[in-house]
Design a protein that fits this description.
Helix content is about 30%, strand content about 20%.
């Protein structure tokens, strides 16, 4: 089975995650997909295959004879697709030799993938692209990564002349709802380090991500008939609005880039008597991240000074910048960069303006930077993946395996 055949097959599995179910995996389709991959791993000839009740699938490609002393490296991708848009009944299509113009995804609904809105399309003129029919996401995030890992280990299995150490692969559920690493058994996985194949465009190599927290701020008011409310009513929605405008307006996602952090108001639910604001707080720098949380607490105190006892805050950290864990083992980044250059790809080292399973895994003791999988415009109907990008990602996996085999533990 070819890389493209695998990908086109995998995107047909409905694996949207759902943070409301409080289960792992959060949706049954992810386990169905995991069982399919387990069967495929067995057919390829991998060993030590395990699939637990939470949907974590792991397997081993044994070391080439004589290379048992090389480091054990891992490659990881996630089973789920984003809940932001339907991943059911995905109908992919290959656009051959893309000409640089508009791509009509759905004639009936007038849905067009256009370089005027997505200028990155022009980087792929002349290439074969896989697109959606405009009614669902594609699922390249992260089924491109799954397909690349599966194809790479199949290739290595078919070419025993290629020397490599022990390789572990893993496919986990629920990355898109921030829970992919929660029940990942790092000890069972047993790799010295790993790479998530979950990045975007060709060349992306990421070992920095946001420090992240979620803050829920509750405003308690008092409801009184509006005709008799003077000096009695306390409108929690109005006070919540006052809080919102106290934060710097330029430190929001729509005004920041690169290493700039932000406060992002993700929901506002309220009545006169009670309003709840939910923010996510992000910053690459740990000190600035801590100051952002303290600023929220400071503003709560200011509100309570004006409206005693009105406001309370609950802040929970979500994940931290994996750079702290990667810097002591930067050779794993050097290996990935070398592998890319060996296949003619220029590495693009850049920070992730988000999170990744690799961040949580790194803090669980498994250093785990992120490598491109090739897709673009994730989480929506305009998602697409160039086939050559997927092929290069597969080649990077093979090349990393070859380079790592030349190291000693």
């Amino acid at each position: 089975m070819t890389l493209v055949d695998r990908f086109l097959q995998y995107v047909k599995f409905d694996t949207q995650s759902d943070e409301l179910t409080n289960m792992t995996p959060s949706t049954p389709g992810q386990m169905i997909f995991a069982r399919h991959l387990k069967d495929e791993l067995e057919a390829i000839g991998l060993t030590e295959i395990t699939l637990d009740d939470n949907g974590y699938l792991m397997a081993t490609l044994p070391a080439t004879p004589g290379y048992e002393g090389a480091p054990t490296i891992g490659f990881i991708a996630h089973l789920d697709t984003s809940p932001d848009m339907s991943g059911r009944h995905v109908s992919p299509r290959i656009v051959e030799n893309y000409d640089g113009g508009d791509i009509v995804l759905n004639q009936t609904d007038g849905i067009v993938l256009s370089p005027s809105e997505f200028p990155e399309l022009t980087d792929y003129v002349g290439q074969n692209l896989i697109v959606t029919d405009g009614t669902t996401l594609l699922g390249a995030d992260d089924k491109a990564g799954v397909a690349e890992i599966m194809s790479a280990v199949a290739y290595l299995k078919e070419h025993p002349e290629i020397a490599h150490g022990k390789i572990r692969v893993a496919f986990n559920p629920d990355e898109e709802i921030g829970q992919g690493a929660h029940k990942f058994d790092v000890g069972l996985f047993g790799a010295d380090w790993a790479y998530t194949m979950d990045g975007g465009a060709v060349g992306e190599l990421e070992f920095e991500n946001f420090n992240a927290a979620v803050a829920r701020i509750t405003f308690t008011g008092r409801n009184v008939h509006p005709g008799y409310a003077k000096h009695k009513m306390i409108n929690s929605m109005r006070i919540a609005n006052q809080f919102v405008i106290m934060l710097p307006r330029w430190e929001t996602p729509e005004h920041t880039e690169d290493y700039e952090g932000f406060y992002h108001l993700v929901s506002m639910e309220g009545t006169v008597e009670k309003t709840v604001l939910t923010y996510i707080v992000r910053d690459h720098d740990r000190d600035r991240f801590e100051r952002r949380k303290k600023e929220l607490e400071h503003l709560v105190r200011k509100i309570n000074h004006e409206f005693p006892g009105c406001c309370s805050i609950d802040i929970k950290d979500q994940y931290y910048n994996m750079r702290e864990q990667i810097e002591p083992v930067m050779y794993i980044i050097d290996i990935a960069e070398q592998a890319m250059r060996e296949i003619g790809v220029e590495p693009k080292v850049q920070p992730i303006r988000g999170g990744t399973d690799g961040a949580q895994l790194s803090f669980k003791g498994l250093p785990c930077p992120n490598i491109f999988a090739g897709g673009l415009n994730f989480h929506g109907r305009y998602e697409f993946v160039p086939i050559p990008s997927m092929e290069k990602a597969e080649a990077v996996i093979v090349e990393i395996a070859k380079i790592a085999a030349r190291r000693e533990k």
